[in-house]
Structure formats: C-alpha cells, structure tokens
Task: structure prediction
Amino acid sequence: MKFTLSWLKNHLDTTASVAEVCAALNKIGLEVEAVEDKATALAAFTIARVIEAKQHPNADRLRVCMVDTGAGEPVQVVCGAPNARTGMKSVFSPPGTYIPGKDITLGKGVIRGVESNGMLCSSAELELSNDHDGIIDLPDDAPVGMAYAAWAGLDDPVIEIAVTPNRADALGVHGIARDLAAAGLGTCKDINVKPVKSTEPCPVSVSLAFDAHDRHLCPSFGLRLIRGVRNGPSPGWVQARLRAIGLRPINALVDVTNFMTFAVNRPLHVFDADKVHGNLVVRRAKAGESIVALDGKTYQLGDDHVVIVDDNGVESLAGVMGGQSSGCDENTVNVLVESALWDPLTVARTGRALGINSDARYRFERGVDPDFCLPGLDLATQMIVELCGGEPTQFVLAGETPDTSRFIDFPWSEVQRLTGLVLPVPEMKLALVELGFHVSGSGDNVRVSPPSWRGDIEGKADLVEEIVRIAGLDRVAAIPFPRLVDEVPKPVLTVLQKRTRLAKRTLATRGLVEAVTWSFIAHDEATHFGGGKAALRLANPIAADLSDMRPSLLPGLIRAAQRNADRGFGDVALFEVGQVFLGDGEDDQRMSAAALRRGAARASGTGRHWDGAAREIGALDAKEDALALLSSLGVATGGLQIVPGGPDWMHPGRSATLQFGPKGVIGAFGEIHPRTLKLLDVKGPLVAFELHLDGLPLPKAKPTKMKPKLRLAEFQPVTRDLAFVVDAGVAAGEMARLAAQADRALIADVAVFDIYEGDKVEAGKKSVALAVTLQPTEKTMTDAEIEAVAGKVVAEMVKRFGASLRG
Amino acid sequence: MTDLSTLERDTLAAIAAAPDEAALEAVRIAALGKAGAISGLLKMLGAMTPDERKEQGPLINGLRDRVTAALSKARECLADAALNARLASERIDVSLPVRESPEARGRLHPISQVIDEITAIFGDMGFSIAEGPDVETDDLNFTKLNFPEGHPAREMHDTFFFAPDKDGKRKLLRTHTSPVQVRTMLANKPPMRVICPGRTYRCDSDQTHTPMFHQVEGLVIDKGSNLGHLKWILQEFCKSFFEVPDVKMRFRPSFFPFTEPSVEVDIQCSRKGGELRFGEGEDWLEILGCGMVHPNVLRNVGIDPDVYQGFAWGMGIDRIAMLKYGMPDLRPFFEADVRWLQHYGFRPLDFPTLAGGLSG
Result:
C-alpha cells in the first residue's frame, strides 16, 4: 500500500515529519517498506533563467549559456540541448550535484575549450520521465532560485507500507490516518459524506440471482446512474496522487474509482450506462461464458466465479475486474456507479484462478468495511459530480448491509495477563475509542464493540493486541523467565536425539563430510531404492526430478558424490544423517544414517601418498564406518550378524545385511550395484552403508551408573598362531567367531592375521591364519594344556569348515 | 712398590687407549681376569702375614677398585660414542607430509552445528526438543493452527501436497514446524516448554528461498508466561547465540494466524565492510516472528485459553546460520559441494556447550 504524505495529511491533522510518521507506522504494525522523497533527492536542483544562449565557438551542437540561478553572479554553462535558448526558464544543478538519471556526480569542466560550471537538466536526468530530448522548459512565472521539486509539487514523499492480511482497514489512507491518530500523531479528520439527494429513481435495476446457500457471495449491491457527465482527464492533483503511487491516470471516471480505492478503501466499478443493455443481474458464471476484461485479456469463466451480467452477457467479474465492453471512456456521458460487497473467498479464488491481481481483488479478498458500501457510493457520486458534473439519480440497493455488530466482554487485566504490561485504564480505553471501538460499562470488566471495518477482531486477545500496539511494544519490559524448578537443568534429549547428533560427530571424525540433500528425489530413483509409492509422490513437485519422498539417503549422496567428481574432486567421502520415508503414516518416517566413499577416500587417508600406493575404497571400508558408528553409539554388537548380500542396490557379492536376528535388520553395507550406478548415471566404484538409528537396540536401563567390577587376570595371556587351509568361499570371520567358542573359558580373543590365496595353496583354496589368545584364570598354563586348547580349535575348524592345519 | 704404581699406570693407560669394547675386555681380562695381574696380586694377599696384608691389602684393593671404575667409565664412554655414531647415521626427512587425520578432514554441516548450538541454549533453559513427521495432515499443519479456509498457504502454489487418498484427504509436506507444537499440546498437559527444530518445505525456489529449509520454533504453555517473558527469552537467546555482550531488538506488531498478539522481531546490526555485526550499527534486520498463542489454537487442542496461556516463536535455522557465520547464499546449503562444506562446515569435535562457548 502506497500513499503520499500530503494525501495522508488530507485525513490526518498533524505536524509530524516523514521520519516521525514512518517511526509511528512501524510502531503500530504498519511496516514501512520504502520511502521515496523526491524533495530530498532533488534538493540541489533549482529553477534558473537562461540570460543568454550563444553558439559554442568550437562545436556546432553546443551552446554557451549564461544562467541566472538566483544566487549571485550569472553562471556559465555549456549545454547540448537543442531547445536551450535565451530567456527560457529551466532547471539548474551546480557542480557537486548527484544526477540520478545519469548516476554521476557533476564536476566543473571545460567542454571544447569553454568552461562549464553546472548543468541545465532534462526530465530524464532527474529521473522524472524518459524525456531526454531537451532541457526542462518551465513557464515564465516559475520563480528563479526556488527548489524545482517544491515548485513542481514533487516534494510529497511517497510512503509504502506492508499491510498484514488482518488489517484490511489499513488499505486506505483514511484507515492509516485513524491508526496514526490513535497512536498520538494527530487528529483523524472525519470523511464528510453527505447523502446524495435526488428525486429521480435509478432506471437500471439490480437483482441478485443466487440460491439461498449462495447469498453470501454478494450480500449487497448498490448502484446509481449519473447523467450528463463530461469525462476527460482528471484534474492535475488527482493525476499527481495516482502517479505518485504508481497508477496511470486514465480518465476522470476511472480515476475516481482508483482514488476512492486508495483514499477510503472503497473499490468501485463504473459502467458506461449507454453500453449496458437492460438491467443488471449478479449471479454465478456459467461454464462456457467468458469476458474481455479492462486489461484487454479474455478470461474463460465457470461457476466458481461471480459475474455481473446484462442482456448482452457478462459485463464485469465481480470484485476483481470490470469488462471492456461497458467500460468508461472520454465519450461516456451517462455512468452507472457500482458499490458492492463480495465474498472474500470467492474473489480470492477467482483472482488466483484467472491470474488477475487487481487493487479491487486485493481489498475484497481481505474484507472491506460493509457499513461503508453505501456511503462510499455517495462519496464517489459527490466526487464525480465535482469533477465531471452530471445529475445523479437515487441509488438502488440489492441485498442488504450485513449486520456485523458484536461485542466482547473484556477485563482490562487481560492486557497485563498476556503481555506483562501494566497500563492505566483510561489510556487503554482511549486507544480503543480512537480506533473506532465502542467501550461500554466501567470498572474492571467492560463490553467492547469493534467497528464495522475491523472484521478481524474476534476476542480478548485481539483487543490486547490493539491496545499494546498503540501503546507501543517497546513499553513491554523483558521479564526474566524463571525455571520451572530451581535446580540444575535435567537432560532433555531422547535416546534417538542423542544418537542422531553423536552419529554426525562420529562419522565426521572418520573423515566424512556431512551433506544435507533434498528430502525428495526422482521417481525412478525412489522406486529403485525401494520407494516410489503413490502415497509419497508429490502432486506438485518443484521439479520433475524432485517428485518422490526419499526411501534412502543413498541416491542423494551418490548424486552429490558424482557432482563433486565432475568438479575434479573424485576422492570424496560424504555422509548424511536425516529422515527417510517408508510410507505416509506418521510412524513411517525413519532417522537414517548413511556414508558414501568414492575413489581413494579411505578413513586412514585420501588419495595417493608417498607412504604407499593409493588403494581404492572397498566394501569393507563401509563396514568399518558402520561398525565404528555402532560402537560410538554404545550399541552392543555381540549379537550383530553380518549376512552376505545387501539390498538390491548393492553388489550381491560385495555387500551384507547388518542384523540382530532375521527380524532385526538395521541396515547394510557394501559396494553400490553397477546397475544402480548406471541408473543414476554415475561412475563407481562407490561403497556405502546405511542404517536406521531408530531401529537400533536401546541401551538397558540400569539402576545406577556403576560400571561392572574390573577383574584383572593374574596370569599372562599366551598366543598361538594357527594357519588353516579351507575352501576359498569359507567366511574367515565365521572361522574366527567359532574358533573363539572352542573353549569359552580360556580363549579371550581370535584375530584373523593373514589371508593368502595363491601358488602356495591348492587352487580354490585359501589359507586363513588365526591368532588365538588364551587367558588363563587359575594358573599359568603348561605347554600341554595350551596344546590341548589349540587342539580343540583345530578340531572345530576341521569339523565346521573342512579345514586342514597348514604345516 | 713401584710394581703396583707401574701396573696401575699401564693398566689405566691401556683402558684409556682401548678403541672398542673388545680391546677394553682384553684389558679387563689382563688385569682382573682369572689370570689377570691384579687378580694375581689379590690371590697373593691370602699368603701374606697379617702385617703385610694390612699394608698391601688396601693398596691392592684400591688398585682393583680404581681399575674397575676406570673400566666401567670407559665402557660408558664407548657406549655413548657408539650410540652417537648410530644416531648420526639415523636420519629421517621430517619434512615429509603425513596423512591428514580423519578428524581434520571430516566436517559437520552448519545446520547440524547450529541446531546443537540452539539445543545447548534452550536445553539450559529447561526446554526439551520435540519432533514430528515431515509428511503432515492438513488438520495439524493448518486447521488446528487457526489458518482460515481459503488461506493462500493452503493452495498448491505455496504448499507441497500429495495425491488425495480414497476419502479425498490429501497429506502435505509441513510448511513450518508448528504442527509439532500442536502435537506437543495434544500429547501433554501444561506446563510445557519445547523447541521444535526440523525440516520444512514450501513451493519456492529463488536466490533466498529453497523448496526445503529448516526452522526452529519454541513453545511455552503455562498459567503465567507473557510477552515480557518472551522478550527476555529472545534477547537472551540472541545474545547467547550470536555470542555478543548485548543486542538491541525491535518488536513490531504483526500478524500470524496462530498467535495473538503477533510480533515480528528485528535485531540491530551494522554492515561495515560487508561484515554483519550485531549489537551495534544503524540497520535493522528481521530475524523472527512470535506472539502469544492464539486462543483458538489453544481451544483446538483442548486447552482452556482463560486458564492457560503461552507464547511461541519461530525462525529459520539456515537463516540464522547465514547471519552468524556469513554464508552469502542459501542454495549451496543443499548442494553438497565439498569445497563449501569444508569451508563453512565445523570440525567434528567442536561440540557447542554453554560452559565452553558455542563456537571454537
């Protein structure tokens, strides 16, 4: 919403400066977005007279002008304008002036050998128009030496405010004045609406053709004919105001409707009565109907839209835009003026559906003052008669003004209850009264009736807001917020929250960099990773490849890794901890953690190094990341099973499922499947793990924080190395696990310290070397006892894996 | 007794002259070995008369002690020299670059860091962290929050919707974290104090908007919390979060469907040399929206607005991260460019705490 300071002062009796007005607007919730003050911007430009204009001695197209600036001696200026001539009055700027149209600061100069001490300016140089054909040519009575902006009436600052959706009443200058007056900035002037007197009835009737349940679409519609108007350009002051706020003056009748819209928030429509055939009917549009609107565009209509029709068809789109065929132009002699109320929702939907953003729509969809519908018609009539002459008829009214009167029982103490601010009752009452509220009763509880233009006021809290915004939120003092109980704060994070943040830090300590990727991915990717369900497909995605909620973090990470590789960073290690979606139910969202490594981005170091050849990452790097994460989260991994083969998007022979039993799958690790790489159009190999943090076993609740008692063995551990030859397909990890079970009492640890496949073992076989550590608890072991345990391990390996002890 | 002094002089000279362990050992054997000269003299002590022994004993023993000490010292010197010689030959190139440690390479995304910072501050004030699903119902995202029917936010051009189910109800991606507040109020009884950080979505994409972004909201419901308390919390939060001794804030009346009165908050700042600083300057920067929870919202979750009251606020996590740490543009937050992440990300062990300071 834009308005000028002088326009405001037509409605507000005040001596406040622009700065004071703006400060007050911000304070009361009408946020100032911009102030354009031409008087300040053009302060250095003054009216001057060209005493003499001579041909420049060295340039055909230049003139040397002696200029009377009204301040001392005449000034010599070299001017290139074709219209510079002796005796003319124009606009002068001295050296040092910033010229907005050229974005330069003027200096003294010598132009083709002649000194120039300033500039005579074109309208374009002052950014007042696009006219740069010549310097501004002012009438003879323009006073030399006066600031040009003030003389030209440009010294009227334009203020633009942002109006929140609840404040429809502030979409007119008068409503803004009322708010400012309540805030102590002056006195709001009454709008002097005299009822228009006429003995002649309006010859055109209006009928509201709605079913009973549709009556709200147009509660009331007022119409009046004015005969014998002379429509032409509106007076300069009207045009100046409209131009200042960015509107194009059209003709007096149309300008009056725009003026009324901005001055008093009363959108109107004018029909050329001679182009209207028969009476007016207001109804829902019918499918197939269309209208050529005032913007020259044709709109197809349906029964969602409300229209005004005559015998010829649709003449106007209710509350949104009028039609071209019955519009007013300079030949209009008889005019029908419409002032109506429209259903805000319908206006909003029609405007949105048809893509029309008009000032009328903007106001009707927020709700205009219903009680001002007929006074607005009278006020517009007065203005039309003043500007264009003519004889008004009586008005006709279809429907009736809805009764919006209501009251709120209001204890003054509510202000303190909700804001902490203690205000004297008279001040609170005055604020409400100034805003147009009616306050009845006395004492602690009063009855408050909101004015007709405040449809947004529903209850006590709204009244508190009114009082406090007028008093000023700066008067609400900050009050220390007490703790619920006077003690050291208790931990607030849940297990999952703690695990989520610890997971991020753990993965980062492994050299992985945290990415945050979109929650939505392409449909084919979602499908490939086990998602793509209809329920998780957006009806209106922002882009075709961001259409489905992700079932996994991996597609986003894989794509991100490739983007980095494309930029020359191929050894990339990324992770993400975030939500994935298994369905649209509220329990179908999971907190997933995933890490992806590419190229030679291993945890121990990235890329090539003098210390050894760069080894490409393998699936077991991802396993290491996954197990490091579980360990860091304190998940007991004793029961963790690593089952060969991961999900479909992983290489079947180089991946595994991580699970606590068949029903306790927590995730997987492995190399990304070549087909997946192809689908995503990325280069591999890539390795990754992904697991759901909310699927991990919860820590056991314990009564105390005591750790189990430490029992240190008194006897030294001994280690025996045993190498076995087994089939190449045997799982070495399983061998180690079962070897440890050969004597649970004595075997403390089994490590796989060497794997060999090659010439020294039979084809199809491999050698697996285990280091078995024995921890005696009773006494130092004899060689025979050690050999006995080693024998048990060997027997177990032979039995379970067909292993033979390597010589 | 010149024998003894000659023997001593010769032996000590031989010790001093011994070039290595082996030569020294030869000297030792010659002097103190089984058939050594000094061993021989010591053996003779037994055959002497007590008077002779009294005289010769100390002399011979003294000789033996001095030779033993000299041998031991010489051995030490030789060992030292040998070690020095070995050390002189042992040299590595200390300039060789070592592998960068994983802790030095890994980074946390600024969003994670800022959520941890916010958690540290509000956790200390006794707020717990509430979370909810990203896929929400229209009821929790809009209706319960007092959004009127026909509100522009409920249209397809602002909000991501899913296809309608068989009952014609369509789910949506939450446009704010406010439905988590509703869930909290439905599931708990006052008093409550929660913050709700999370991902939010709007159909918007330009320089300053991304279709996905992060918000944190706060909610307090009890029998006495008012706008004054809210002002204090926000002031203390901004001071603590931006790590400045003081901030100046401006509270402007505003409008949100779910609060009444509603307030927008600006924070004073300066922009000297392109660097944003808080607690000084002439500019105002809008930072958050807040207000007293609307009585309709309280009624919608079964809380009597005449008995209970409270406030809520919300702000963009990405936005306050940009303000604090100086990222100029929002879009790279979600592009996973490792150069950006390395530069604007945080070291893995920079865990923000109030005791140790939020940032390192």
